[in-house]
TrEMBL record:
UniProt domain Peptidase S1: residue ranges: 473-708
Protein name: Complement C1r subcomponent-like
Disulfide bonds: 84-102, 172-189, 185-196, 198-211, 215-242, 272-290, 331-379, 359-392, 397-439, 423-457, 461-579, 625-648, 657-687
Keywords: Calcium, Disulfide bond, EGF-like domain, Glycoprotein, Hydrolase, Hydroxylation, Immunity, Innate immunity, Metal-binding, Phosphoprotein, Protease, Secreted, Serine protease, Signal, Sushi
GO MF assignments: metal ion binding; serine-type endopeptidase activity
GO biological process: complement activation; innate immune response; zymogen activation
Amino-acid positions noted as binding Ca(2+) 1 in the UniProt annotation, renumbered to this chain: 79, 87, 132
GO cellular component terms listed in the entry, alphabetical order: blood microparticle
Highest taxon of source: Eukaryota
Domain Sushi: 329-394, 395-459
Gene3D superfamilies: Complement Module, domain 1 (2.10.70.10), Spermadhesin, CUB domain (2.60.120.290), Trypsin-like serine proteases (2.40.10.10)
All copies of domain CUB, residue ranges: 24-149, 215-327
């Protein structure tokens, strides 16, 4: 640089120090005043770490009169929210909001400041930062840079020859050639930088010496804002054509309100020939306004709106100021779901809101005919629901299972339907269980909420057409049909047994252990009608019974066995089971108790009977059985084993004998007259006096476990 240029620059610096106010004044901030230089930085609390919750911080900036403040955000990361209602930064001048910001550069909601420059109308500016008490995720906050911008009085122009400085106190006194949308008198010098800046709403042209209106702008992220005519509230410039394009995401509907229309050109009749403002919504006829004619509110029903502003050369007017914001598009009102609930249930739903559908107890959810476990749907950005509502259909339990030996009646099979069961003849409900089952919410037929089971029809037991009468105390009598309907005739080996249900036979272990078992039910004569032949499916001998390899056998402890039949026998008047003892205590064997025995064993004539014979004998003290004298000298009575699982019964001339083994010692119930099996004919030292019987009451638990599980 030559001496002349250096001298000129020195003179310029000296003169500007007098023309422009001093920059050494303090700037007021929230914490304490500090010496303000040409520029500075403001950071959110804890920056660059995440800012705290529930915070309110305020910065007040003030510079000498004649200057302005320009603020630019270099980094901005706040929690996004609709209309910045949660965390936000506000830039204010007195009570006017110059900008309210939140979100991030790539956020779909919120209002991000971007790289726009915010210029204060005069020498003061206030920045407010606020965070709420909830943070879903961490955000860094912001870093803002501010600097002083000089006012029109210190306008400095740098001439092309670099030799002459021109200080303008009246900026527009010298005509400057203008291009379209160019405002030559709107720039301001930056102290000591020999460059120009523009007021808010204008941008510096490429040549760096004049400003042009920023009235061609596009917004695709801010859901709320204010748009003004260039220079508002001062008169707008002539010869401009502005297009403010709002293109927000689908699902947002723009609402426009007119905050002020001081004047837009002149109004002539019903046409706007000169300056005018137009609102363009896709698919609709444009709305044109001029003068002071305008509606209070325009509901566009669209997410895309163009605001056109055109002026001519015929003078200027004060302009206009409008505000825009969004409402969410709504989805059709939902009809109630029959037998179901919509959560949440509102009168109106808007874009982004979701619902859940639950079916009531006893109903299942179906979508397009398929069962689904859950249902969610969202209101979409085109105003339609993501999924159509499902149906809640009643649980179907299906046709109820058949209950053996029962007749069922039902009409429906869905939730809360009922089915009633009636036991067939010769059967009754087990344990007085209710005879009605209901279709429950889990899809099962149940007698009650706690029992996943159906009724049981068990055979009527212990019925006999035997009529007791006084008989002489010797021998036996011939039985008639129906006297002993539980009696089972073992042809091979010659023995007896007792039906305890329609599928189980109770007999002695030493009979059941035989390899071949040929049995009949409903038979009273070996040469007469055969009755019903029974076939063995399974034999279960008591695990504590031990057959002796030596002869004779002296130990018959636990002489009891169960035989399961391949098919259930059809019950009737001549074939029905005998009852089991109710419990061990109630059926304790007592001396003198009378019981009926029956069989096809050896008679007094020392031959096997062809007819079913019976006798009534009493229970006696075990000593009577121990005192019986064997007819064979090879049998030693002292070797026989007597246990608590046995009892003794009989009398002189009346007893069971070979061929009767396995038959029942039947005792009638005092209240009902039904017979139960108190003992099983097991063994004896000799025939015609006393015999030993297996005490059935001692094996009740074993019998019930096997017959209910097999």
């Amino acid at each position: 640089m030559g001496r002349l240029q250096a001298l000129t620059l020195w003179i310029f610096q000296v003169l500007t120090s007098y023309i422009c106010p001093s920059l050494s004044s303090d700037i007021l901030t929230e914490t304490s005043p500090r010496v303000f230089q040409e520029s500075g930085d403001i950071y959110s609390p804890n920056y660059p770490n995440s800012y705290p919750k529930s915070n309110f911080t305020e910065w007040k900036l003030q510079v000498p009169k004649g200057y302005r403040l320009q603020l630019v955000f270099n980094h901005f990361d706040l929690e996004p929210s609709y209309r910045c209602l949660l965390d936000y930064v506000q830039v204010m001048h007195n009570d006017d909001v110059l900008g309210s910001f939140c979100g991030q550069e790539d956020s779909m909601s919120g209002i991000h400041p971007g790289n726009q420059r915010i210029l204060s109308p005069d020498n003061t500016m206030k920045i407010i930062f606020k965070s709420d008490d909830f943070q879903e995720e961490a955000h860094q906050g912001f870093h803002a840079h501010y600097q002083i911008m000089a006012g029109p009085a210190c306008r400095v122009r740098w001439r092309d020859d670099y030799l002459r400085w021109h200080f303008d106190t009246e900026e527009c006194s010298e005509p400057v050639e203008k291009e379209e949308n160019e405002l030559s008198c709107s720039s301001f010098c930056q102290s000591g930088r020999l460059s120009c800046a523009c007021q808010l709403g204008y941008s510096l042209k490429q040549q760096g010496q004049s400003c042009q209106s920023l009235c061609n702008a596009e917004n695709s992220s801010e859901t709320e804002g204010v748009i003004m005519s260039p220079g508002y509230p001062k008169p707008y410039p002539p010869n401009i054509s502005c297009n403010y394009s709002l293109k927000l995401e689908k699902g947002l509907l723009l609402i426009i309100t007119f905050l002020d229309v001081s004047e837009v050109g002149t109004f002539s009749g019903r046409s706007c020939d000169s300056d005018h403002l137009q609102i363009l919504v896709h698919g609709r006829k444009p709305q044109t306004f001029c003068g002071q004619d305008h509606p209070e509110r325009i509901v566009t029903g669209s997410n895309r709106v163009d605001i056109l502003f055109n002026t001519d050369q015929s003078g200027v007017s004060r302009g206009w100021k409008i505000k825009y914001y969004v409402e969410l598009i709504s989805c059709p009102t939902l009809k109630p779901v029959l037998n179901g609930n919509i959560i949440p249930e509102w009168m109106q739903y808007y874009y982004g809101q979701s619902i859940q559908v639950n079916c009531r107890t006893g109903y299942i959810m179906k979508e397009n005919g398929k069962v689904i476990s859950e249902f969610y749907s969202s209101c979409q950005n085109d105003g339609t629901w993501q999924r159509s509502l499902p149906q809640c259909e009643a649980v179907d339990c299906g046709e109820p299972d058949d209950v053996d030996n029962a007749i069922m009646n039902f009409n429906e099979t869905t939730f809360k339907a009922s089915v009633s069961y009636q036991c067939k003849e010769n059967f009754k409900m087990a344990n007085s269980i209710e005879s009605v089952a209901h279709c429950e919410a889990d899809g099962f037929w149940k007698i009650s909420d706690l029992k996943n089971e159906l009724p049981q029809c068990i055979p009527v037991c212990g019925k006999s057409n035997y009529a007791a009468y006084v008989q002489r105390i010797f021998g036996g009598r011939r039985a008639n049909e129906g006297n002993f309907p539980w009696q089972v005739f073992f042809m091979e080996p010659r023995a007896g047994g007792a039906l305890i249900s329609d599928q189980w036979v109770l007999t002695t272990a030493h009979v059941a252990e035989m390899e071949t078992l040929k049995m009949y039910a409903g038979r009273i004569n070996t040469n007469g009608p055969k009755g019903v032949e029974l076939h063995v499916a399974e034999k279960i001998i008591h695990p504590n019974y031990h057959l002796s390899s030596s002869k004779p056998q002296y130990n018959y402890d636990n002489d009891i066995a169960l035989i399961k039949l391949e098919e259930k026998v059809k019950l009737g008047a001549h074939i029905s089971p005998i009852c089991l003892p109710k419990n061990k205590q109630s059926d304790e064997v007592q001396n003198g108790k009378l019981g009926l025995i029956a069989g096809w064993g050896i008679t007094e004539e020392r031959r096997l009977s062809q007819n079913l014979m019976y006798a009534e004998i009493p229970v006696v003290n075990m000593d009577f059985c121990k005192s019986v004298k064997p007819k064979s000298s090879k049998v030693k009575p002292e070797n026989f084993i007597f246990t608590e699982n046995m009892f003794c019964a009989g009398m002189s001339g009346r007893d069971s004998c070979q061929g009767d083994t396995g038959g029942a010692f039947a005792v009638p119930d005092r209240n009902t007259g039904d017979y139960h099996i108190e003992g099983i004919i097991s063994w004896g030292i000799g025939c015609g006096s006393y015999g030993v019987y297996t005490k059935v009451a001692n094996y009740l638990e074993w019998i019930k476990n096997i017959t209910t599980q097999s």
